[in-house]
Amino acid sequence: MSSNEPTVNPRPYSGPADRAAHGWWRARTLSPLLGVLLLIGLNLNAGAAGAQATETARRAPGPAQSALPVRGQVLDPAGTPVAGATVATADGNASVVTDAEGRFELALAPGEWELRVIHPLYRTLARRVTIGSDNVELQLRFEATVAIQEWVTVVGIRAGEEVPVTTRNMDREEIRRLSYGQDVPKLLQYTPSVTWYSDSGTGSNYSYFSIRGIQQTRINMTFDGAPLNDPADHALFFNNFHDFASAVDSIQIQRGVGTSSVGSPAYGGSVNFASPGPGPSGSGDIRVVLGSYDTQRASIGYQTGLLDSGFHISGRFSYATSAGYRERSGTEHHTLFLNAGWQGERSSLKLTAFSGDEKTQLAFLAVDPATLAVNRRFNPLDAAERDNFGQDFAQLRYMTTVGDNTLLTGSLYYNGANGWFRLWDDPVAQSNLLEFGINQGFWGGMVTASRSGERVSATVGIHYNDFSGDHFLDIGDSRIYDNTGSKKTANAFAKLEVRFHRWLLFGDLQLRGAEFAYHGDIDLGSVDWLFLDPKVGARYDLSPGLSVYGSVGRARREPARLDLLVGEDNATVAHDLEAVKPEAVLDFEVGVNFNTRNLALQANLYAMEFTNEIALTGELSEIGLPLRRNVDSSYRRGLEIDLRWKPAPGWSVLNSLNISRNRISSWTQFYDVFDEQGAWIGSEPITYTNVRPLLTPELVATLGLEWTGRGASIGLTGRYVAAAQLDNTGLAEFRLPALTNLDLRAVYDLGRGRLGGHPRI
Questions:
Q1: Mean pLDDT per segment of 10 residues, for the chain of length 761 residues?
Q2: Helix or strand or coil: residue 471?
Q3: Residues 182, 203: contact at Cβ < 8 Å?
Q4: Where are the beta strands (DSSP E) in 403-432?
Q5: Between the CA of residue 34 and those of 25, 202, 309, 736, 749, what are the distances in Å?
Q6: Other CB atoms closer than 10 Å to residue 544's CB: what's the count?
Q7: How far apart are CA 624 and CA 387, in angstroms?
Q8: Torsion of CA 531, 185, 613, 363, to 10 degrees
Q9: Other Cβ atoms closer than 10 A to 761
Q10: Please, which residues have CB within 8 angstroms of residue 460's CB and are 6 or more apart in sequence?
Q11: CA–CA distance from 456 to each of 504, 507, 536, 741 (Å)?
Q12: Distance (Å, rounded) from C-alpha 327 to C-alpha 383?
């Protein structure tokens, strides 16, 4: 019998959790927000065109026949289980995604069925199966030829399962299970070493996350391999495009310097988002959310599936509004996502784009404990202090194979944002409303080549982008200032994997250069940097499912525009663009991975040793931007655990843990000095030694228990975050207290409604 033919596999199987992501109820305790969100989803499967639907009805079993479980496992050409593959009937009425061991379960009535197995890395596999009176278990193996489908381009950016770096992958089912419309920082909170906060207190306003206490601007973020961080300030505001999780098929989080990427340096970690590929058939859905604090969200999406011509298109429009937990912290969002492409036998072309618009009442200022004791929702900013921003992203990507083992990709992309925010010049007198405007964008391109062999695999890539950003200030109809910052960035990288016996050796080398120039009332000229950063590591398989790994890597990162201008939006003095030194980190990782059918465990130790770290001071500039400066030496060292365990059918235990010790060797804080009349007379420096970096808790732990039955699931998750400093002095009066959250999530699948015989909604 051919290896591609379905074969009976007598091994027992407990099927994956039922897919249910269309109803939510969530309550939080020991937190300001006691929210109840109800998500009502109606999935409308478009089905096939009239003639095809008639043919399907003619050969499909009648409704009176009892369905039988069809179980199985999907393997790659080498016999390794394939996770995340879609197994579906040809008519699209039944589908399931394989679990971490490549297993699946479908319920089908007796008769003859055609199954299709779809995965981005392989050509679609079609098999006819006859269902009799007994249960059926199949083994389906992909062919060796590499197919060109979606997110495969990120192989040049993402780390493979065996690469010896510390990673956490979130697949489509986990994202759907956890997402109910919140911003990405809140969605990532249950992965190891991630902390987050939101200006509004609900995750619907500006939200930010950190990995190992390293802030979002020092974390590389990409979407289908294209950079999302803006090159000048390395910033990304998820508030600009709401409901982003609905446009994402999978997420990989690399902690530490990870593997080479493009765009902003992967200094403290990287988060790689991938868009979904075409489904097996056309479908549409409508989602509605109602929640606390006047939260309202709605979206409508549709996809054609992969048509016989090879073309596919999908899109989603989302609308959201919320008053926010804090006073005057409301938001309004409109976002459009679009995927369109053509899929050939050995090549593909795809356009991915999104456009978002937001209107937000600002709420970024802190509040003193005495005020919070009276009013926990207090916001010192006025209703007139608000913003309006939009962001547009588009990427055109072409992929083709050369032979059976080589993949070439080329892409062009654009990423731009523009808008304004308003602040009172004098919050008390409210005499002048300052409007700060930004109009910026960057375009770029990349080419990668990946070759996979039995023992040696290699990837090489080159990337370039060109950024320009205009900043200006208006008061009424008067322009007070305007300036332009421009930046050009280029990098080339090479990655090599060598396998022999139980060993996998990995090497990664990246050459990166950047040049920044500033032009305004004071012309500061330009500054450039050049970095060569290596990474090496090894993994050893102790037994099937058990391996150990270790790696060491270096990453360097240039200062952001904000650092170079010392917090100013418009330079008022001749800043020395070389005064702030690039920061560097040497990252050591060692860990163990243990995977069985019911248990997935990753435990690792890390040591991140920093030189000239550009550390947050805890202060804000006059327009609310965070200030940073170099410190000579600092470190973050710790233990991370990520556990997912299925002790019994339908039950899951989830745990993540980070225990760390984090220190800055020496920190000098400057304090303002005033005379008896209250006039400022100067500043006094005080030096503190061996202090904790701000917003870096030394214990972050989550523990969750989830039960999943037919069409329903209930999850209870507890989360503890230890105390953290609000500045780098270590003083108790500037300490954020520890917090504990308890989240209850209940989901019920309302089912799918089918529009038989109609190819559209």
A1: 33 31 31 32 35 36 62 81 83 79 86 82 78 79 53 55 89 84 88 93 88 94 93 94 90 91 86 86 88 91 89 95 94 96 87 96 90 94 95 95 86 97 90 94 95 88 96 94 96 94 94 96 95 96 93 96 93 94 97 92 97 89 82 96 92 96 92 80 87 95 91 90 93 91 84 38 28
A2: strand
A3: yes
A4: 406-424
A5: 11, 10, 50, 21, 23
A6: 8
A7: 13
A8: 130
A9: 15
A10: 448, 449, 492, 493, 494, 495
A11: 10, 12, 15, 47
A12: 9
* CA-to-CA dists, residue 431 to 387, 421, 426, 434, 482, angstroms: 19, 17, 6, 10, 22
Decide if 276 contacts 176 (C-beta within 8 A): no
Q: Which helix (H) or strand (E) holds 507?
A: strand 503-519
Cβ neighbours of residue 591 under 8 Å, at least 6 residues apart? 166, 548, 549, 550, 602, 603, 604, 605
Cα 277 from Cα 339, distance rounded (Å): 9
Residue pair 595/551 in contact by the 8 Å Cβ criterion:
no
434 and 422 Cβ atoms separated by less than 8 Å: yes
> Which residue's entry shows tokens 């009648």?
62
Name the DSSP letter for residue 276: -
Distance of alpha carbon 636 from alpha carbon 405, whole angstroms: 40
Q: What is the pTM of this model?
A: 0.80
State the residue for tokens 């060292």. Answer: 637
Listed residue (271, 262, 273, 270) closest to 156, CA to CA: 262
Number of neighbours of residue 7 by Cβ within 10 angstroms: 14
Rounded to whole angstroms, how far apart are CA atoms 310 and 346? 12
Q: How far apart are CA 121 and CA 96, in angstroms?
A: 18
Q: Would you state the structure tokens that stand for residue 604, as one six-digit string?
A: 């690792």
Pairing of strands 311-322, 295-303: antiparallel
Residue 533 to residue 493: CA distance in whole angstroms: 9
Looking up tokens 């937001």, which residue turns up?
358
- Nearest CA among 60, 70, 133 for reference residue 92: 60
282: closest CA among 309, 314, 304, 306?
Answer: 304
**Cα(393)–Cα(515) distance, integer angstroms:** 23
Cβ(27)–Cβ(38) below 8 Å: no
Q: Which amino acid is at 505?
A: L
DSSP one-letter code for 53: H
Cβ-Cβ contacts under 8 Å for 615 (sequence gap 6 or more): 628, 629, 630, 631, 634, 664, 693, 694, 728
Alpha helices in 277-427 (DSSP H): 369-374
532-536: long-range contacts, CB 8 A cutoff, minimum separation 24 = 533/257, 533/260, 533/509, 534/507, 534/508, 534/509, 534/510, 535/165, 535/257, 535/259, 535/260, 535/506, 535/507, 535/508, 535/509, 536/505, 536/506, 536/507, 536/508
The DSSP output letter for 757 is T
Q: Do 652 and 99 meet the contact criterion of CB atoms below 8 Å apart?
A: no
* CB atoms closer than 10 angstroms to residue 196: 19
pLDDT for the residue numbered 304: 92
Phi-psi map region of 90: left, alpha, beta (phi>0 left; psi -120 to 50 alpha): alpha
In which order are the strands placed within the sheet that holds 166-170? Answer: 166-170, 250-255, 269-274, 219-223, 226-227
- Using only the alpha carbons of the chain, give its radius of gyration: 27
Phi (first) and psi of residue 119, to 5 degrees: -150, 140
Question: Distance between CA atoms of 565 and 518, rounded to whole angstroms?
Answer: 10
Residue 193 CB burial class (10 angstroms; 0-12, 13-18, ≥19): buried
Which one, of 218, 7, 8, 17, lies nearest residue 648 by Cα? 17
Beta bridge partners of 565: none
**Sequence-separated (6 or more) residues with CB below 8 Å from residue 737:** 723
Report the alpha-carbon distance of residue 487 to residue 467 in Å, rounded.
5
